[in-house]
Amino acid sequence: MPDVRLASPQGRWILFTTVLGSGMALLDSTVVNVALPAIGRDLDADLGALQWTVNAYMVTLAGLILLGGALGDRFGRRRVFVVGVLWFAAASLLCGLAPNTGVLIGARALQGVGGALLTPGSLALIQASFHPDDRGRAVGLWSGFGGIGAAVGPFVGGWLVDGPGWRWVFLLNVPFALLCAPVAVRHVPESSGGKAEGHFDVLGAALGAVALALVTYALIEAEEGSLLVAGSAVAGLAAAVGFVLVEKRRPGPMMPLEIFASRQFSAVNGVTLCVYAAFGGFFFLAALQLQVVVGWSALAAGTALLPTTALMLLLSARSGELADRIGPRLPLTVGPLLSAAGVLLMLRVGPGAAYATDVLPALLVLGLGMVTLVAPLTATVLASVDTARAGLASGVNNAAARAAGLLAVAALPLLAGMGPEAYRQPEAFDSAFRRAMVLCAGVLVAGSLFALATVRRPAPDCRRPECRTHGSVAVPPLEAGRRGGSDAV
């Protein structure tokens, strides 16, 4: 039984290094959007390259995050966490030194691999290290500090872009990693899931990542209408079918398909796909709109986005308590509708927009919608499966949200009619942005209606979330299993 106490020096070091490690990946997922216009100007990149700057990271992270948790269970959670931290730092260094968009996109994909190793490992180390009496508080502090990191991410990104330059958005990870890794080696006890037999589902993970990458490529490059684009779309769909077949037939799949036998689990993941597709598309385009059309600096744009994450950080725990009393159906119906209203209020944000009267009301309403739905969504995911599979269920839900976001970033500019040079043409970008906001709102309304039709109140004795405080706008919180590991091999 783990026996480290939170008040001990070792306990504080464990909390420090896990927060720092997961914070790097969480910060990177929110800070890059603010830097995109500066990256485009410096590297002479078109809109497609900017989309890939975001999505290359998300493809590998979403495709490999379940496998990353299984690797920690097998080879040691601390070992895999440290490897992930150092891998992430090396890839960040390559991003910061990238001479062109090709190198930057490749380095971002490598960053996602590192993120897939360290993200599940950070929470697993908390779960596996602390005494049961302190574990809940440790998880609460871990998620709370992580939420603070997510909240300040856009502000930090804007300050770096306007100051030392966009490359420091990535280079800042290197000193953090060089501090995090030695502390982990010295102070964090090693642990594993005790699974010494069986095979890793490398084929399933590879097929999932390849399917996402090919479909993303086809969506980003669809305007070309070439045979390569059409072939990529077909190959991506074939890889997706192959992924399902492999997961169905393997003895130890990364994502056991029988987990979807729970109608509640399938339903809440459908809601997840809708809401996080809309959120991913919104935050990608909003950061560009505030700089390209409104004319704000990166710092001003990043600061402007703070209210949504601040509201989630302050109110997510209370939202979870409310959902415990009234059930998840109403919050999961009302939350997307509030978010849709916030997205539509962004139609007021154009040339000469004022923060107090145009931008802030939209972000406050959007933030309240996110507060309303995120905690109940996570609770419903955990309640819809057996307790032994809680970690797996959370991992699948987290990966689904990431996949929805990256597909939205790929598809939304296409559906809104944004050309490759749109972000250099304020008037054209503004028109396409307005169409995109209507599409995002429509997807959120669809998620609301789907929740109303399918989500039911869970049993009273079901598993409850341990991560009560949450600040990420990109993904729902990641929960570990009872023993701190992923339930997948």
TrEMBL record:
It holds the Pfam family MFS_1. Its main location: membrane. Keywords: Antibiotic resistance, Cell membrane, Membrane, Transmembrane, Transmembrane helix, Transport. It is found in: Cell membrane. Residues 480-489 have a biased composition (Basic and acidic residues). InterPro entries: EmrB-like, MFS, MFS_dom, MFS_trans_sf. Residues 468-489 are annotated as: Disordered. PROSITE patterns: MFS. SUPFAM superfamilies: MFS general substrate transporter. Residues 14-459 form the Major facilitator superfamily (MFS) profile domain. It comes from the Bacteria. It is a multi-pass membrane protein. The chain crosses the membrane at residues 12-36, 56-73, 80-99, 105-126, 138-160, 166-188, 200-220, 226-246, 267-288, 294-317, 329-347, 359-383, 395-416, 436-455. This is MFS transporter. It comes from Streptomyces tendae.
